[in-house]
Specification:
With about 375 residues, the protein is an alpha+beta fold. The protein has four domains: about 5-100, Orthogonal Bundle (Helix Hairpins); about 115-145 and about 200-250, Urease metallochaperone UreE, N-terminal domain (HSP40/DNAj peptide-binding domain, Sandwich), CATH 2.60.260.20; about 250-330, HSP40/DNAj peptide-binding domain, CATH 2.60.260.20; about 335-369. The chain is about 30% helix and about 25% strand. The chain has eleven helices and 15 strands. The strands form six sheets. Strands 10-11-15-14 form a four-stranded mixed beta sheet. A three-stranded mixed beta sheet has the order 1-9-8. A two-stranded antiparallel sheet has the order 2-7. A hairpin with a 2-residue loop joins β10 and β11. α2 (about 20-30) packs antiparallel against α3. The chain is elongated, with a radius of gyration of 34 Å.
Length: about 375
């Protein structure tokens, strides 16, 4: 019997985050664990399947192999159904440890928070790529107290609430969980004399300037990750990351859709009627566009390979030029007379020279009749 897809087993999508996978597994484990379903073989089988799926999808290396090769890519590494029933606490140990920290005492370690920075770019910068200097506020370890939060020359004391363990035990329903001590924040220590610079926080806020290399072809919503440039961690843990999110500014001439660029090109009715050559702006310079005789408003002309190469790769897009015929304004008396003379030459040949107008007038006539 073929194995069920691991994502279907947990009820998650292939784009689910690690946190979403963990949440789905926890929900299924609570529902099907043998301790809650004694003598229920079907529930035990569901539990084993969920645990096996979680062991694969919670491991980045195994998940990548499974995504590429399916079950064949992880059979040897996962060892099949190796979940077993186990104790009820074993099932949730890895989940609760990630949420509340390990059960042992002492100061807890927390990875620094990730930061996000919005970077405005011109369309030209986004398409060609650029290097930008940004200045960001960050929390860094206080040099005065070396991150302890205590006044120089003093030391934090053991927390009287948790006894220095950093955690307290809380009963929730039929099982108990550990969570960080609310008085010491999980450090196991309390500060009687706070540091004057960081006020007992162990961190101070500073600004730093970073150089960000933006690859060519980025678009609004794309992000560049700067590893380790987020906030400092606690208890010796590493810093978070900085995500620079791109926002491309509105352009006066072009709009972008994927790899293609679009522009509206106003032309006068003489050029539209007789045809002609126009110079069209592109991001790489000027290009010549031939306008055929009898061009109408809304017609679109394609300049191949004058668009964008996406940051994700692929071919070069095109530049799409949409014609908008401009009606002349503020005409002189002589110009008006010439136009009236021209219109008189059209009488009797309206269907030939203006077929759309003629067909519309015929439709209107039929409507009223």
């Amino acid at each position: 019997m073929a194995k069920q897809d691991y994502y279907e087993t947990l009820g998650v999508s292939r784009t689910s985050t690690e946190a979403e996978v963990k949440k789905a597994y926890r929900r299924m484990a609570m529902k099907y664990h043998p301790d809650r379903n004694p003598d229920n073989a079907d529930a035990e089988e569901h539990f084993k399947e969920a645990k096996e799926a979680y062991e694969i999808l919670s491991d980045a290396r195994k998940r990548a192999a499974y995504d590429q090769f399916g079950h064949a890519g992880v059979d040897q590494s996962s060892g099949g159904h190796r979940g077993g029933a186990g104790g009820f606490s074993d099932v949730f140990g890895d989940v609760f440890n990630d949420i509340f920290g390990a059960a042992g005492g002492g100061r807890q370690s927390y990875r620094g928070a990730d930061l996000r920075y919005h970077l405005d770019l011109t369309l030209e910068e986004a398409i060609a790529g650029t290097t930008q200097k940004i200045r960001i506020p960050v929390r860094v370890e206080c040099n005065t107290c070396d991150g302890t939060g205590a006044k120089k020359g003093t030391e934090p004391v053991i927390c009287t609430t948790c006894g220095g363990h950093g955690q307290v035990r809380i009963q929730q329903g039929f099982f108990a969980v550990q969570q960080p001590c609310p008085h010491c924040g999980g450090t196991g220590k309390m500060i009687k004399e706070p540091c004057g610079d960081c006020h007992g926080e162990g961190h101070v806020q500073e600004h730093k300037t970073l150089s960000v290399k933006i690859p060519a072809g980025v678009d609004t919503g794309d992000r560049v990750r700067l590893s380790g440039e987020g906030e400092a961690g606690a208890g010796g843990a590493g810093p978070g990351d900085l995500y620079v999110e791109v926002q491309v500014q509105r352009h006066d001439v072009f709009t972008r859709d994927g790899n293609n660029l679009y522009c509206e090109m106003p032309i006068n009715f003489v050029t539209a009627s007789l045809g002609g050559d126009l110079e069209v702006p592109t991001l790489s310079g000027k290009a010549n566009l031939k306008i055929p005789e009898g061009t109408q408003t809304g017609q679109q002309f394609r300049l191949r390979s004058k668009g964008v190469v996406s940051v994700r790769g692929g071919g070069v897009g095109d530049l799409m030029c949409r014609v908008v015929i401009e009606t002349p304004v503020k005409l002189s008396k002589k110009q008006k007379e010439l136009l009236q003379q021209f219109d008189e030459t059209m009488l009797g040949n309206r269907s030939k020279h203006s077929p759309k107008t003629s067909s519309w007038l015929d439709a209107v006539k039929d409507f009223f009749e």
